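Lab meeting, action items carried over

1. Structure of the two-component assembly. Owner: GW. Status: complete.
Input record:
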Amino acid sequence: MAKKWLEISVGGLLVAGVAALLALAIQVSGSHLNGSSDSYRISALFDNAAGLSAKARVTVAGVIVGEVTAVAVDPQTLMAKVDMAIAGDVDYLSIDTSASILTAGLLGEKYIGLSIGAEEDVLTEGGVIEDTQSALVLEELIGQVLLNLGGD
Amino acid sequence: MMNWLQTIGQQTLQRIAALGGAWFMLGQALWGMPGPKGLQRLTQQLYVVGVQSLVIILVSAAFIGMVLGLQGYTLLVDYGSEQAVGQMVALTLVRELAPVVAALLFAGRAGSALTAELGLMKATEQLASLEMFGVDPLHRIVAPRFLAGIIALPILVIIFNLVGIYGGHIVAVEWLGVHSGAYWGNMQAAVSFVDDVGNGLIKAVVFAILVTWIALYQGYTCVPTSQGISEATTRTVVYSSLVILGFDFILTALMFGGL
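Predicted assembly:
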């Protein structure tokens, strides 16, 4: 009887370990949006995607609706091509939706904010957002200010 | 002067010989795969080093998670970014604290017990009688304990991670009023399963090998007297702790430091 109890408790420890690993994967590292069938992919071309990286949030009105899956230079246009996975139940992104790269707080990480346009047609798998606004680069801003001051 | 040099040389040679002996012991112990009988012994050892260490792991994980939540909140609230507390708690635990603290507790709870058990077996000549019967004590006694340690510690670390993160959740979300969605959302955006959880588990496996190995070697080679056993047990805890902290730095530098 004592031995049976011992084996049960060891089995329980192993099962608890596997369950906890699953919970870590889903709840803590949020692996559920990655390539699951419950999401669709869209992309957007930015002049400048400085500071944006994979796994960054994609939001509509501040609510998370998806995540960035890849950031790469598009060889044709030489712009930054940002791939995003959007949750399947978000089926109201019109084709004239605009995307901008925003910063969470003063020092926070970069994320993408989508603002939905007026068109009836919606973006589907493989859709491309054309109206984009690039990341704010502090150095360029300062440069512009200095240039303006110099011009006066 | 000559005596002094001789002492240094002697000590060094002894250390190197011990290191060689430890490798030899490990190789001998793991030479053959355990049969069905060995599996039963493995289960028993998993109970001793795994299940019996569970309570101390659960309690310390909950408190460490809660302290991280509290400290993180008071630090971050000054910058108006208390939303990031979930990310801070999770990354601290998954990358560093869970493997290191669980391994230190494991060394104190399970490692010292292993050393004392083996030392007592040696002092009461149980190991010698096994050899008399033609049973290899390395196979019979050391191997199942070693495997059990390597399996048990990573599982304990996984559980430590989860309990700690929920401990931080209790303090930050339930008590201090951080938004629950922000706690989990920031965490999920920041924690990568392969890079953070996976690397933390690699650390756990490395620490498990080191701690169990040190504990078994110290027990197996201790001076078979009551004082010898007590010294060996102390050495197990001291060496294990130092090795864990040292290797943690090396592993962190390799995994996250961009070296």
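2. GW to write a short summary for the group page. Key points so far: Residues 48-255 of chain B form one domain. Chain B touches chain A through 33 residues (CB under 8 Å).
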